[in-house]
Amino acid sequence: MHEAALDEEADNAYSQRLRREDQTAQRSAADAENITHSRRLRREDQTARRSAAAIKKLSQLPPVSPAPAPAPPIGSCVTRSQGKAPAEALTESAATGDPYTYAEAMDSPQRDHWKRAMEDESTSILINNTFSALNSREARQLQVKPIGSKWDFKTKHNPGGCTRYKARLVIKGYEQTDFGETYAPVGKLTTFLYLISLIGSYGWDMDHLDVVTAFLNPEIDNDDFYLPFPEAWPGGLNAPKIIVRLRKALYGLKQAPRLWHDNIKDFLLTLRFQQSSADPSLYLRRDGILVLLYVDDISMPYPEAAAKAAIKVKAKLSEKYMITNLGPAHQFLGIEIYRDAIGTRISLGQKAYITTILR
Asked: Which listed residue, of 56, 133, 249, 335, carries a Cα 20 to 30 Å from 191's Cα?
C-alpha cells in the first residue's frame, strides 16, 4: 500500500510538471504572436503615415498646364509619317530626347551614336537585299509614284543601365495606296503575365531575344513598291534622284507586320513548335520550351531540363535572322522583371516608363 501511494504521488507530480510546461509554452507562443502583431501594426501605421505625407505633398504642388497640341492640317490627319508628329509623339519625343528628324539627330550630342546606328541599319538593309536601284531609263519609264522614306531614331534603356541607340529606315506608309491584308497578331499581356506566374511557380528560366531589323527578312508579295534613295544614306550615296525597288518589307509598309509574322511563324513550325489556339503569338514545344512574340521581341521561357534544347533553338534563330541575345529577361515590353536568387519569387515594375512620363 505504501509503495502504491508513492507511485501515485510521483505520477501526480509528473502530470503537474507537464501541465506547467504546457502552460509556459502556450504563454510564450501567445507572447510571440502579440509581438508579431504589434510589429505588423507599427509597419502598417508607418506606411499609412508615409502615404498620407506623400499625398499631402502632391496636393500642394501647383497644377501643370499641358502644352497645346499642334493644329492638324486642314482636311488631313496628322501622323508621324506626314512629317508632323501628333501630340502623343511630340510628348514622347520631348520626354525621351530622341530626335524626330535626321537634322535633329546630327545636331544632338549623341550624333556619333546615331551615325553608327544608321550605319548598322544600312548594313542590315544591304545584307538582306532589301532593295535594288533602278537605272535612269527604268526610272523615267516608271508608271508608279515612288513612296517617300525617313529615318526614325529611338533610344532604348535596359534595367542594367545599358543604353542602345537604334535608327530605322521607315517608309511613309500613309502614301501607300496599294495593299492587301495588313493585320498581324501580337502577344497578349495576359499571356505574358501567365508565363511570369509559370516560371515563378516552377523556377523556369526565361530569355529575351531581339530580332534586329525584323521587317527586312520577308519577301514582298507580288507588289512593286518604289522609293527615292533614302536621305543621308551612309557611304556617300546621297542622291535623292536615285529610285530603288523594294524586294523585302520595310518598316512603315502597311503589310510589313503581317509579312514578318507569317515569316517567323513558318520558321518556328519547322522547329517543331505548335501555335497556340488561345494566343496566335504563343508557340509551344513538347520539351516545354515556349516562345512569345511581340513584333521583333521574343520571350522564351523553358524548364531547366530543356536548357540545352533552348540553346539549340536560339542558335537556329540566329542562323535564320540577325538576333541579339539579351540573356535572362530583365525587361519585356517596358515591364521590368526582378527575380530573387532562387528564381521562384518574381516582381514586376515600370520604373523607366513612369520616369519617362514624369519627365
From this structure: 249
